[in-house]
Amino acid sequence: SRLLDENILVAKPFFDRLGTDLIGFTSIDDKARFCRIQCKYRELKKSTSVQVDSNYVVGAFVLFLYIKASGKRHFYCLLPDDITRILKMKEIKNKKVYKLSITRTSLQSLEKDKSINFTPEKAAAVYKLMKASSPNVEFLRIIKGMQKDFKKYSKTQKDYVKLSKLIRSEERRVGKECRS
User: Fold this and answer.
1) Which of 10, 43, 70, 127 is most buried, judged by most C-beta within 10 A?
2) Are 47 and 37 in contact (CB under 8 A)?
3) Is the distance from CB of 40 to CB of 13 less than 8 angstroms?
């Protein structure tokens, strides 16, 4: 994996919450930091598009975009600042998303933007983003996404109440950490 080549450890969770297809780690120890990684693959014939929920594009979030066009492969790495700069904010079905419409012309523009190529410098920026993030806040983002689904699919209200109490307890703990 290109991430492993850049000393970013990767795990595939058994869920897809808050746009998390993969989780990138700085290390596997008590000082580990991580990022949420969303991966998008598109094959360009005439046009295609990519959408990312605007709620995902906070903190340590990384979008990997893989586009295949005319037999050529294009691989891009977008951090939150890149996403807000390149993708357009739209409202689709009462939901705010960042959307990128991809045509041959817009693909040429992406090719010219060297800042989104996955280079050792970009990998260092991903690593820096992870190191600057709070692991507790990133973890809570994922857990909150799971809580919403759990409420929908929970077989009993009792399970939902237990999970809600656990999350509130973790939020209080994280809040105390952030204040100190």
Assistant:
1) 127
2) no
3) no
The first and second tokens of residue 159, run together, are 């399970």
User: What's the burial of 45, exposed, middle or buried (CB within 10 Å: 0-12/13-18/19+)?
Assistant: exposed
- Point out which residues pair with 89 in neighbouring strands: 98
Amino acid at 110: L
Which residues are CB-neighbours of 165 under 8 A, at least 6 positions away? none
- CA distance to 6, 40, 92, 112, 166, per residue, from 121 (Å): 10, 21, 34, 17, 39
84 CB burial (10 A radius; 0-12, 13-18, 19+): middle
How big is the CA angle at 47 (ends 42 and 53), to the nearest 5 degrees? 55
* Inter-axis angle of helices 157-179 and 135-153, nearest 10: 170
Span 44-68, pLDDT tens digits = 999 999 999 998 888 889 999 999 9
Whether the model pTM is above 0.85: no
